[in-house]
Amino acid sequence: MTGPPLVPMVHLIEAASKPVVAAIEGIALGGGLELALSCHYRIAHSKATLGFPEVALGLLPGAGGTQRLPRLIGVPAALDLITTGRHVTAAEARQLGIVDEVTDLNAVDAAVKFAQSVTGKSLDARRISTYPCPRPPDLDAIFERAMQQVRRSARGAIAPGTCVQAVHAAVTLPYAKGMERERELFSLLFTSGQARALQYYFFAQRAVSRWSTANGARWDTSKPRPVRKAAVIGLGTMGRGITVSLAQAGFSVVAVETQEQQLSEAKQAVSGMLERGAKRRGVPLAHDKIKYSCSVQAVADVDLVIEAVFEDMALKKTVFQQLSAICKPGALLCTNTSGLDIDELASQTQSPELVVGMHFFAPAHVMQLLEVVYGPRSSPEVVATAMQMGKKMGKVSVAVGNCRGFVGNRMLKPYLEQAFFLLEEGATPEQVDQVLEEFGFAMGVFKVSDLSGLDVGWKVRKSDGLVSPASTGTSARIRGGSRYSPLGDLLCERGRFGQKTGRGWFQYDKPGGRVAKPDPWLHGFLEEYRAQHGLVARRIDHQEVLERCLYALINEGFQILQDGIAAGPEDIDVIYVLGYGWPRHRGGPMFYAGQVGLDKVVERLEHYQQIHPDVPGLQPCSLLRKLAASGNPAIHKWREVIQKPRSQL
Ligand code: ZOZ
Ligand code: NAD
Q1: Which CATH number applies to 443-532: 3.30.110.30, 1.10.1040.10, 1.10.1060.10, 3.40.50.2300?
Q2: What ipTM does this complex have?
Q3: C or N terminus of the chain, fewer CB within 10 Å?
């Protein structure tokens, strides 16, 4: 590995005896900016964008960028740009000193004119590699802070910290030595699995926008309908965030609750979110976009409704019947259900082709994912409209088929189930979460459960007939012949719904609090539970926690592919990275499985299944076995092996 071929070119340009002026139009990201920094002058069009996004692909600017940029704009600004990959406008680039001039006219013409004006002037002071790197007095503190910052946000990704080391070399070493260090560090990143995972993920996220559905609708043939006014029904955990996302995207919103008290609490929460959004992220304040109402009649003239009432099929059916009667003809009726049958809801309406799932993720104003769930009767243009709405709200929309839990929550079920079983066998929520967070998840599964609300899953289990508080002995932990853990149900029976009640798997300082603290009450409760069920706690190592939780989730992912619910492994990976905080530098669960080795995943699942024969989720599914047996092919070859049900028609 000798580094990118751009290196000799940038050195030749910089060494030229004639002035070289970079004319920057459009985007100068990565290699483009490397090239521009090797020039003696830089002129940018006012609409140009500049930056070093390499860190997001698991790399660093490897053609001298880490050595030149701090020499040009100073260490703190260079660290910021290189470690975040942030893009800057031409105006900011001018302010930082990256470009010499900004023009609203043709940048090439301006650069030629500029070159003529500097002809004959010495270039000695224009070769950035010859500049001494500025050394502010608090240099050590700057690097210490930068390292702390990247450690806090990187969640195990190595590129940001390596970028800091490369910039450090610019300050501590002469240019030539610094370039050697940059090359070494680049090579380290290039050969790490993380760069491959991040590059795979980069293309996966683009691939999901070219969606297609099992009944033949496609991104390039289905035209979205115009939507100006939307409504949200139910302003709880999810409805509030959905309202904020819609208003911030410029839609007029009618927000509906059942009673004045809930409405006024929701209004206060929504206003807070809008104000923090404006303050922290510069999003325009959008209070005036929202009208609040306690009457569902207020949605009569909207183009699209998103229902976000309790996860209760009977209630949702009533709401859909009402909406079908009240809404104007052609209005889209969407549900934010976590996993109920979209088609059953569609059947309550006069126009089932207008019904589609718009499944947001908690916290809904922050998480970047939207699962668009198409039922067998959802029309192509309705799917296209929901997909486009997600995009307008700044989210990545992924089209998925209709089944229990769709893609994300269907995989979450066996993952959460393993986490419950681990508690029964001796683990604590903080231990399980620590292992998952060390792996790189933004939050462990128990913290996520507290954030979402334990009552959401409880309502579903109750309606499925799984919750039977009276049963004791082994039957309390068996349902339909399979192992079942009632732990979540027992917590809900005690009013522990998570963050919203201030108690769940963890304790919080108040209802609505966000800082999770271990709860001694829960430890005592788990001990009592184990004693009552004759379970003996054992020490469970990190590897077992990780393998059981992740491989059960991954196995379900393969089953989903086999069933044709997700179009491809990329869709699943994007859903997990953007919807559930899966570490991007591990590519997503399906990519990760390929990196571990599909045969190894099968072998470990079989191992755990032998120990827990009453857990069907540990039985490797046939697609996973088939792929493992065909020699662990690269992920882009999986489609050749996947036999989708539609291809058998
Ligand atoms: O930690 C980041 C994250 O991504 N966590 C993972 C969240 C996740 O996995 N969500 C998916 C839940 S599952 C789901 O939604 C599907 C479903 O159908 C569930 C059905 C029930 C199933 C239950 C079983 C599990 C997160 C983005 C949360 C925070 O990241 P940062 O710490 O970098 O963010 P900040 O501090 O910059 O804050 C950004 C905004 O997020 C708010 N926030 C942070 N922590 C929170 C939270 N909101 C609620 N609870 C928390 N614990 C924070 O307040 C800020 O918003 P604003 O409005 O204050 O600006
Ligand atoms: P929640 O209990 O926090 O809020 C539900 C709200 O709906 C309550 O404020 C309630 O007063 C209101 N409501 C009930 N009936 C109503 C009616 N007829 N008209 C208007 N409002 C009504 O629930 P939530 O967690 O926000 O979940 C809402 C929906 O979103 C559920 O279907 C859930 O499965 C789904 N979902 C939840 C999450 C999550 O993480 N909590 C994530 C994605 C999807």
Answers
A1: 1.10.1040.10
A2: 0.98
A3: C
